[in-house]
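Fig. S4 source data, part A: sequence.
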Amino acid sequence: MNQLLFLFILSPLIAFFVVLFFNNKQEKSISGIARFITALYIVAAVAAALQWGFNGFDPVSEQFLIVYKTEGFVFAIAFYYDHITAVYSITGALVFFLVVSFSRFYMHRDEGFKRFFITLLLFLTGYNLVIFSGNFETLFTGWEIIGLSSFLLIAFYRTRYLPVKNALKVLSVYRLSDIALVLVMWMMHHLTHQNVSFTQLTEAKNMAAQIQPGGMGLFIASMILLAAVAKSAQLPFTSWLPRAMEGPTSSSAIFYGSLSVHIGVFLLLRTYPFWQDMSGIKMGVILIGASTGIIATLIARVQPTVKTQIAYSSAAQIGIIFIEVALGFHVLALVHFAGNAFLRTYQLLVSPSVLNYLVHHQYFHFKPAAATAGKKWRNTLHTLSIKEWNLDSFLHRYLWMPFKWTGRKFNFLETRPAKVLTVVPAAVLVYALGSETSPLQFIQSAIPVISMSVALLLILYSFASRKSARTAWVYLLLAHFFIISGVIANRELVDWSQVSMYGSGVLLAGIAGLICLQKIHRIDKNISLNLFHGYVYERKQTALVFLLSAIGLVGFPVTAAFIGVDVFFTHIRSDQTALIVLMALCFLFIELAAIRIYCRIFLGLHKKPDHPVAYRSS
């Protein structure tokens, strides 16, 4: 089983790096490697299931690698295999092979052929890390990789306006689920004082009931539910699913029809031993699933586009699966998952052919429906469903706009005096932290909250800024300084190795990103965030380096800052509500602000008139 797990995780990752050395015209080699890996994946998935069955169907839990370890914290890559993993791995293997085989012809001569298969292999790596994960740290690593690959495939047609805009919109919901998982790990650490594996969830549940009934355990279960709801497009986040269909049809099939959209279901199944006795959480899962099933079905029945119909139909079925999980019908939920995944994959892959047939049929056989007397409630539901129940505008107005409004109130940070004055609180903070007799001793206990508040304000300014990209980027880097200072001030004994681990990754990414922005600025002296510049068309290497810098700045697993984020959260006590809220908001918006800068400068419509210009709508 050790060798099979090694094959599942490392083979797609090795293929990912191998394909990087091919050029876009070598389509047979690129698709051949991808097909070989997915065929090998099928063999490995079936072999793992058979071996597991021959060993008596006992769950297998193994620790693969300890990445970082201190006296009170362990970051380990651990694997777990049971009936849930078996179903998800076999279903995933078959779907991956079908989509890769279809894409070798569907993506033929596309300028992003190589980029498509690279991203698909990256997604396969993240998917395997999630379904084979034995603890929250491993699951979170794969969770983040799935989110990044999803963003890249939605924005695949990156010279168009809507794919880029919708990719950022989907990423914002994904980031919300990421932060929910981080908070799960944070509270679980304070509950158990260790990094628990999925085999210890029952013990953790009993511990939560003894220590603080209805407190820590309820918070952890609520964050698990939030992460699952956001990732699986349940209410009120359902509207991101049709927006994610901007990518190629084959990527829509594997992401938003079959595998990625069911990861929330996997999270509920995997953590069920922890929340199975919490009637409030179970009722919440049932209510969310039922309301999503009803509303998404109504929306799907009146949508004019086939992808939107399939997206909402899939969300409705996932809502029913949520109910099955909450009621304990896990075998039925797994069968339902596999059936829904194969059906949506088939529907999306054949949708271009079906549309061609239906257009031909309608042209020759169209007959208008007979007029019938309508009813108020029926017309109201029809209108609401046409407008998708205004879910998109609801999220935009009440979830994101308050933070954008706050960020715009700090537009004065763009002025030269403000840039100089921002150094003052940083210098005062350094003095206060380093001096035992500082004049700020009387507010020493408030320094973590003050520092984290300043960091959040700088991040929100960058998130809402429409002016200089370089200034917004520098403020994001400066915000990390205040985050680190807040964590240091919250600890009596500071482990400087952890600070250097986090700070070195952030600093490296920040400097690399600033160099990239400076290179683009030299071209025409204008890289404001007020419009899309589309420089990926002529500066592909710079765009790639800046993307790596952006994800490195937010703690994606490309630098040591990824481990540092998890460690930093453990330094905040469970009773420090204000501090954990501020820190969670910082890490929520810092990724959105960084990726937004990447989208505005490198993606979207071509800025120069001598380049081909895509239509605003895809």
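Fig. S4 source data, part B ends here. The two ends are 46 Å apart (CA to CA).
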